[in-house]
């Protein structure tokens, strides 16, 4: 994600809430990097190498190796819980109850997914070329359907959504490499793959304005939801320092 796109996304996700911050999953490393100077940042993933990667982005963060569905954290510890491209990987019922438990009253859960925007004409033509070979190709199953669990959750009754546009420059070698990596291209024989890539190259030459690259469009879809502790099934035992009154 570009620096501007990241900042717009993060600004909206954290707007109106205060830290400390819990960043979950290696795929949210850009959030960890952007929040590296903030106080009380914790990064977590079930994979030790992923946690090390997060820590390289935010060296002063508290690192934890644990599952999102079983957070080894005290209740009401965080003002924000942030994820990117990963909510569909977790058991939603367990994860959402854990997110709600560790959030402070008024805290927010923020989730983002970056998805390809097929509404731009040259991208429509690219998708059509690939689907001439395989009608199911480039279907864009990004995992966003999993957010229905958030909509249905009693722990997060107030949900807001927003989308940001992101443009990624891509030159001809980059576009050919992207198409060649797709499963449909990998399944073709040499002649079929060569024909497909030739069509993609012709599309690029027709759409690009040399020497400028094409811009591959994406939408960054965001959800932010305020926690409601009244629906938690287990008692919420606050730690001794869980309630702070600031004057």
Structural overview:
By secondary structure, this protein is an alpha/beta fold. It has one domain (3-231): Vaccinia Virus protein VP39 (Rossmann fold, 3-Layer(aba) Sandwich), CATH 3.40.50. The chain is built from 9 helices and 7 strands. A 7-stranded mixed beta sheet has the order 3-2-1-4-5-7-6. Helix 5 (121-133) packs antiparallel against helix 9 and helix 7 runs antiparallel to helix 9 (190-207). It starts with a helix and ends in a 21-residue tail after the last strand. The model is unreliable at 241-247 (pLDDT under 50).
Summarize the structure.
With 247 residues, this protein is of the alpha/beta class.
Keywords:
247 residues; alpha/beta; Rossmann fold; 7-stranded mixed sheet; 9 helices; disordered C terminus
- Please give the domain count: 1
Using only C-alpha atoms, the radius of gyration works out to 21 Å
Number of strands: 7
CATH architecture type:
3-Layer(aba) Sandwich
Give the SSE map.
Layout: H1 3-14, E1 21-24, H2 29-34, E2 41-45, H3 48-57, E3 62-65, E4 78-84, H4 92-102, E5 103-116, H5 121-133, H6 148-152, E6 158-170, H7 172-180, H8 183-187, H9 190-207, E7 214-226
Parallel strand pairs: 1-2, 1-4, 2-3, 4-5
Antiparallel strand pairs: 5-7, 6-7
């Amino acid at each position: 994600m570009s620096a501007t796109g990241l900042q717009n996304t993060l600004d909206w996700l954290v707007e109106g809430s205060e830290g400390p911050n819990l960043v979950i999953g290696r795929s949210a490393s850009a959030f960890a990097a952007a929040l590296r100077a903030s106080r009380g940042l914790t990064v977590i993933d079930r994979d030790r190498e992923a946690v090390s990667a997060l820590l390289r982005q935010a060296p002063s963060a508290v690192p934890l190796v644990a599952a999102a569905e079983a957070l080894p954290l005290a209740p009401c510890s965080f003002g924000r819980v942030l994820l990117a491209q990963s909510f569909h990987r977790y058991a939603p019922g367990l994860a959402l109850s854990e997110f709600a438990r560790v959030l402070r009253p008024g805290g927010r859960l923020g989730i983002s997914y970056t998805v390809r925007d097929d509404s731009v004409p040259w991208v429509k033509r690219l998708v059509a070329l690939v689907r001439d070979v395989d009608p199911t190709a480039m279907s864009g199953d990004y995992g966003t359907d999993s957010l229905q669990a958030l909509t249905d959750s009693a722990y997060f009754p107030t949900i807001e959504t927003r989308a940001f546009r992101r443009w990624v420059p891509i030159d001809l070698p980059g576009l050919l490499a992207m198409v060649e990596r797709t499963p449909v291209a990998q399944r073709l024989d040499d002649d079929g793959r060569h024909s497909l890539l030739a069509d993609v190259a012709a599309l690029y030459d027709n759409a690009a304005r040399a020497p400028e690259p094409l811009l591959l469009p994406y939408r960054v879809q965001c959800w932010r939801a305020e926690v409601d502790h009244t629906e938690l099934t287990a008692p919420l035992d606050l730690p001794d320092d869980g309630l702070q009154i600031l004057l």
